[in-house]
Amino acid sequence: MSEPAFHSALAARPDRKNVEGLTIALKEIDDCGMIDLRGELKDETFSAAVSDAIGFALPSEPRTSRRQGEIAALWLSTDQWLITAPRPTVGNLHAQLTAALKGVHSLAVDMSDARTILRLEGDNVVEVLNKGTSADFTDLKEGAVRRLRYAEIAALVHVIAREPDVMDLYVFRSYADYAWTYLTTTARQAARIDLFGRQV
User: Any residues with CB less than 8 A from the CB of 171 and at least 6 apart, and which?
Assistant: First the structure.
């Protein structure tokens, strides 16, 4: 039996790997798989089983993440995490989690095709993101995770690095083209925000 083939929601966008003329670097991250994990962290059986499967403990602090090697865990709520790993390996990781959590009140679902990840890089990332949401990214530290409404759609921001900024914007696949259009419009040089008048 042949393996399922992945097709990007932005496949019709020839520039999805390298957009020119913007104030930031923008590209799609299409080689990352995702597992939606739910369970009670205070359940030691659950937390131990997950740690054994992914190689490290799940983050317990709100809006944080942890990474070890190519696997990362993003805190989404008190009982929900998004586990990311290279797309070719996420199937095996999901199988390991499912086996480790057998009989434990939990849920692990491969959601690799449910979301599109857009990576924003550069000194103007915060300005571009702020055009689509009232959330403040100024003081977010590396590893921070923020669920929000971005340009009127549900989204998630994961801070990969600061100075220079690298942030991943997660949107549901059906909104990928809309989000791409919004970003490529608001990140143009002509859309830069200039301050007028004397600043005191």
Answer: 115, 116, 118, 150, 153, 154, 155, 179
